[in-house]
Write a structure and sequence with these properties.
Shape: rod-shaped
Helix content: over 70%
Structural class: mainly alpha
Number of strands: 0
Distance between the termini: 42 Å
Largest sheet: none
Length: about 150
């Protein structure tokens, strides 16, 4: 009976070790995905703020060609990564509003010779959308991190 007991203890010990490794890998993967989510949220918010600052520099400060230097492809890439990493409806809604506000502001600005009231309205909408996106991200990311 000692041989069978030793064999059973060995098998159970190995199973516990394998289960522990599996659980640790799963937790590490979740933590990595949460970090990627936080990174993409940060990139989207920073990119939107950069766009807004470039509009301000041309509009208020009179600098030339600032908006032309905006990296729209990086913003789009971060937005798509964010959509892949999260299924949160509030985050999607905030991201959609941010992108729509950005399109409206950019379209208005690129038309040129627009009145200040229209630019002000669209600029304000974009500014509010950034703040809302950051607030929603601030709710989603910690929740995701808590699941790890």
């Amino acid at each position: 009976m000692d041989v069978w007991g030793t064999l059973l203890a060995t098998v159970v010990g190995a199973a516990i070790a394998l289960l522990g490794q599996h659980l640790m890998k799963r937790a590490e993967d979740r933590a990595r995905l949460s970090e990627l989510l936080m990174e993409q949220c940060s990139l989207v918010a920073a990119s939107a703020a950069d766009f807004e600052n470039r509009i301000f520099e041309e509009w208020i400060l009179g600098l030339a060609d600032r908006v032309d230097g905006f990296d729209l492809s990086a913003h789009r890439l971060a937005s798509v990564r964010l959509q892949i990493l999260s299924r949160d409806r509030a985050l999607f809604s905030a991201l959609e509003e941010l992108n729509e506000a950005g399109k409206a502001l950019g379209g208005c600005w690129r038309r040129g010779d627009v009145d200040d009231d229209e630019v002000t309205r669209r600029y304000s909408r974009h500014h509010i959308a950034i703040a809302e996106f950051i607030a929603v991200s601030g709710d989603v990311v910690p929740r995701r991190l808590a699941l790890t």
